[in-house]
Specification:
With 911 residues, the protein is of the alpha/beta class. Strands 10, 11, 12, 13, 14, 15 and 16 form a 7-stranded mixed beta sheet that branches. Strands 9-8-17-19 form a 4-stranded antiparallel beta sheet. It is elongated, with a radius of gyration of 36 Å. It is built from 26 helices and 31 strands. Helix 16 crosses helix 17 and helix 17 crosses helix 18.
Length: 911
């Protein structure tokens, strides 16, 4: 690899360009972005050697409107690693995807175009939506124009295509070094084929199955919701104390409920088996109030003795606890909530009393809110409501993108085994998590907690439209009944298919939805069911052709999955499930988990909260390098505030790199007007670094390279940046100030000229140092580093294809030098300048004499650098170094203080 070649070099050859008169960060994005694209700087080279490839499973951002700086934050972390690996000689496979199916896209399309799907409508090839953008105003459902499923899908494809162009422009400006030829879409033909192929194989192995069962349902989006998509939120409600009456003697048993509207769906009263208050009632029956339905009193350990009355009604279904009780105790099903969130229209057969039938007819078709009011009024009138409802706040399940509490509705859905019901599989997935390298490692427990807490398999079907369809049809019997138990499946070589359009083998289109024919599966796959296969999608898993097979072998399992910490339970876990079931391996070796971006009030930044910052704003104001610096300063797994001050520091760092490099490269090449208008060549040999101060710089540079390299190999990009940046400022503020006159070859304050060897040593140190900084900072500041590298290495290609520095060259230049010489020399210069500052005289004022006190162990370090210290400090007389008394408790052994001093006359100002 290129890195190994550089490790054996003892010099750096430079092809110096003419330098610009002025430098700045403005315009660098356009200049270098165009050149990177033209030269395909970041293109995957197509290596077939797995050991030579570093592959990244880049998160495909959801194309549903706009990005915010939180995206910039996490994607920068990934890009730093990608650039570092590329400079270490790896052929980096770094694709970009667009997650363009699913609810977020549908919701945006509905609002943007003012449409909604009506599956009864036929396709209209000439349809034109009523709007093309609504300036952020939400269009109510009643005002949305109904369109066919296919028209709606076409509008989704149209809008996502427009959004993706904007997203790509932003990512390019940020400087992401992805290979844009490897871009994919989660709704594209290839991803649909992969998702359908994987599903069919899961189905054949018995890992995918369908069942009629109670499940979480979002009434707004009219779709089932998986456990991983839940969000628990505080919700206002009221406790109602309600009396059930024993069948035997009519005596009351009081329960407390927040959902009295579910009384018609009650199937049991449940208390803990150890609760002495209710043990005498177990096995007996009570009448439900108002409806007069007999229900048993039973025991279950999930009942909470210290909550409410300690006994609860089980309804089918109010919450997931009801589902657990229903399943464990084999209770009857008495569902009354429909998919639209309203009470069923027909009176259930289990309600037989005249009063019960009359009351149910009154609530039939009502929303749960309206039905609750009617039921409470009836309870109050019947005397079964004890006291008035008392306000409470309860934690209620919501769909993460929904606005109303979820209901539990019984429906036919597709599931995929994920360890929620199979303990052996659960243990295998826990073991997979232990194989994976988490960065930071403390995030591992979130994965394990999630897997251990699963209580059901992954619900992968959705009752939506814009997504990957299940590749299934069902036979319809002669009497018109659909046979869901024997689905019709296509062959893999005809995938992808749309069962709403395509026809199963052996049938014709005229047999669709008729007795003796077939019907299509109308559901689509959950968006995560496709996104969980991104490692297989990007590596061309199971795709025919020699090139595809070679790509898969060279890139899978992948090296890195970068992502947000908040989707460990969804994307990370589901991807592990799919690779474990299909490929028998982890999908990647490492995962890098970014924290959240916080607003100035330290609240998580999100579009739903309205506190986001559009990333184009800071990029335009401070430059892409500055924004990347802010992002890269935060460690993985930690939250970071949106901090403009950090961006300003990043901008200053980029500008300093430009100015310092221009200054160093101009030495010895300037004409009388201080222009460097001609090209030149230079060779910076390690053997030419002979001065003690210069060798100290090289010693510290070797340490910095080792520390930064180790940190980046451990995915600690922030520690690497901190180390590099700290030394860069020391190099500029201390070393350049100390050595610049020697580098120029000018006489010192006493008229003595430096030797040719000392001049060469300084110039070589400047060259080696700034060449190293260009490469060390390249993953962080790609634009500024590319600019300065082009000044030093004209015609040698991009800095982002250059070798990452290795310590060997700088260690050879350092010899046995002590890195602390630079530190103490900088402190000595600061002490001399402090003398002038306190005397309020010009820094050009000569120092005739001074006594400096410092730690005795540091005196040799200052002495070997004395010539540069005195020249930079304008010392014309004698400096005495004495050992400081550091015995006092408040003594600072790192300080150099002036004990005495004598100043000369400041030089006259030039007129």
């Amino acid at each position: 690899m290129a890195n190994e070649e550089q490790a054996n070099n003892t010099s750096v050859s430079a092809h110096l360009t003419a330098l610009p008169d002025k430098v700045g960060v403005e315009g660098l994005e356009e200049k270098w972005g165009a050149q990177w694209e033209e030269e395909q700087t970041y293109a995957f080279q197509g290596s077939r050697d797995r050991k030579a490839v570093y592959s990244i499973d880049t998160p495909p951002p959801t194309v549903s409107g706009s990005l915010h700086v939180g995206h910039v934050f996490s994607y920068t972390h990934t890009d730093v690693i990608a650039r570092f690996k590329r400079m270490n000689g790896f052929d980096v496979f770094y694709p970009m995807g667009w997650d363009d199916n699913g609810l977020p896209t549908e919701r945006r399309v509905q609002n943007y175009f003012g449409v909604r799907v009506d599956t009864s409508l036929k396709y209209d090839p000439d349809f034109k939506p009523p709007f093309a953008g609504t300036d952020g105003k939400k269009i109510q459902a009643k005002d949305q124009v109904p369109v066919s499923r296919q028209n709606f899908i076409e509008l989704c494809e149209r809008l996502t295509g427009e959004d993706e162009k904007f997203f790509e422009k932003l990512w390019r400006t940020l400087g992401l070094s992805v290979d844009w030829k490897q871009t994919y879409h989660t709704i594209g033909e290839h991803p649909r084929r992969v998702a359908q192929k994987a599903f069919l194989r899961n189905l054949a192995r018995g890992q995918a199955y369908q069942k009629q069962a109670p499940g979480l349902w979002d009434v707004t989006f009219q779709t089932a919701v998986a456990q991983a998509e839940l969000e628990s939120r505080e919700y206002d409600g009221f406790y109602h104390k309600v009396a059930f009456h024993l069948v035997k003697d009519g005596s009351p048993i009081y329960i407390e409920t927040t959902r009295p509207e579910l009384l018609p769906a009650c199937v049991a009263l449940i208390a803990h088996p150890d609760d002495e208050r209710y043990q005498k009632f177990f096995g007996k029956e009570v009448y439900s109030p108002l409806f007069g339905v007999k229900v048993p009193v039973v025991a279950h350990t999930a009942a909470e003795m210290d909550k409410g009355a300690g006994i609860a009604m089980c309804c089918t279904f109010g919450d997931m606890t009801d589902v657990q009780w229903w399943r464990d105790l084999q209770l009857p099903t008495r569902s009354i909530i429909q998919r639209n969130g309203r009470i069923a229209m027909s009176t259930p057969e289990w309600i037989s009393s005249d009063e019960g039938v009359r009351l149910f007819e009154e609530i039939a078709g009502k929303t749960t809110f309206s039905a609750r009011k009617i039921i409470v009024d009836a309870l109050r009138e019947s005397g079964d409501l004890d006291g008035e409802p008392t306000p409470t706040k309860r934690m209620t399940n919501f769909y993460e993108k929904g606005d109303k509490p979820l209901e539990i509705v019984t429906s036919r859905q597709w599931y995929l085994s994920n360890g929620g019901t199979n303990r052996a599989l659960n243990a295998e997935l826990i073991a997979r998590g232990k194989e994976l390298d988490f960065h930071p490692d403390f995030m591992r427990v979130r994965y394990e907690n999630w897997v251990n807490g699963l209580n059901g398999d992954w619900l992968i079907s959705r009752q939506r439209f814009f997504g990957v369809p299940f590749p299934l049809w069902y036979p319809v019997s002669a009497n018109g009944e659909v046979d869901y138990e024997h689905p019709l499946t296509p062959a893999e070589d005809v995938l992808p298919v749309d069962p709403m359009i395509d026809v199963p083998a052996g049938y014709t289109e005229d047999q669709r939805d008729v007795p003796g024919g077939f019907t299509a599966e109308k559901d689509i796959m959950d968006t995560w069911a496709t996104s969980s296969l991104t490692p297989q999608i990007v590596t061309k898993w199971a795709e025919p052709g020699e090139e595809n097979e070679a790509l898969f072998k060279a890139t899978f399992p992948m090296d890195l999955r970068p992502q947000g910490q908040d989707i460990i339970r969804t994307w990370l876990f589901s991807s592990i499930v799919r690779a474990h079931l299909e490929n028998g391996v982890l999908p990647w070796a490492h995962t890098g988990l970014s924290g959240w971006i916080l607003d100035p009030d330290h609240k998580k930044m999100s579009k739903s909260k309205g506190n986001v910052v559009v990333p184009s704003e800071p990029i335009e104001k401070f430059g892409a390098d500055a924004v990347r610096y802010w992002a890269a300063s935060a460690r993985l797994g930690t939250d970071a505030a949106y901090e403009i001050g950090e961006m300003k520091i990043g901008r200053r760092l980029a500008i300093k790199l430009l100015n310092a490099t221009k200054f160093a490269l101009a030495i010895g090449r300037e004409d009388e007007n201080h222009h460097v208008s001609s090209a030149a060549t230079a060779t910076w040999n390690a053997a030419d670094v002979t001065n003690a101060l210069d060798r100290s710089v090289m010693a510290r540079l070797a340490e910095v390279v080792d520390i930064a390299t180790k940190a980046l190999n451990e995915y600690d990009h922030a520690r690497a940046l901190e180390t590099i940046e700290s030394f860069f400022w020391q190099f500029c503020d201390d070393y350049i100030e100390l050595a610049k006159n020697r580098a120029y070859g000018t006489a010192d304050a006493t008229g003595n000229l430096p030797s040719e060897a000392d001049v060469l040593s300084a110039r070589t140190t400047l060259g080696l140092g700034l060449d190293a900084f260009a490469r060390l900072l390249a993953p962080y500041l790609p634009y500024a580093t590319e600019e300065v590298y082009s000044w030093m290495h004209e015609g040698e290609g991009s800095v982002h294809r250059a070798a990452w520095p290795t310590a060997g060259l700088y260690r050879e230049a350092a010899g046995d030098a002590d890195a602390s010489v630079l530190v103490w020399a900088g402190r000595a210069l600061a002490a001399l300048r402090k003398i002038k500052s306190e005397a309020k005289v010009s820094m050009k004022t000569p120092i005739l004499a001074a006594t400096l006190a410092l730690d005795a162990s540091a005196i040799p370090a200052v002495e070997v650098a004395a010539a540069d210290i005195y020249e930079a400090g304008k010392v014309t007389g004698r400096i005495e170094l004495v050992a400081a008394d550091n015995s006092a408790e408040d003594a600072n052994a790192d300080e150099i203080t002036a004990v005495s001093s004598e100043l000369g006359e400041a030089p006259a100002k030039k007129k």
